Predict the 3D structure of the following.
Amino acid sequence: MQIQPTLGGLVHQIFCKILLLAARLAPHQGDALLVAEGRSVLPRAESDCFLARLSSLPIHTDNDPLPARRPRILALARDQGLSSYDATYLELAQRLGATLASFDRQLNQAASANAVTLFSQL
């Protein structure tokens, strides 16, 4: 199935650029798709196509145990005024030298302040 240049296509392109996911956060991709489907932004067929393509990507999960990450995550959250959820993404990108893709202004500012490359800067 060909994905048209719709918002769904944009979502597909962004998610396909992310080749590294925190293992415990991976279920949220399904939530995002369900919200988009529920708001009639993304047809179910495009969600299914996206998930099939996502499954074919060389995605690596983060197996660093949470107890080892928790102090770094909380420190970033406190220092940058982030939620622990956003700080988790920032900590992962920072630790692995990965590029961060986000539309969240505060998270992007925190990434810049911590020398994390943003997708928009590529």
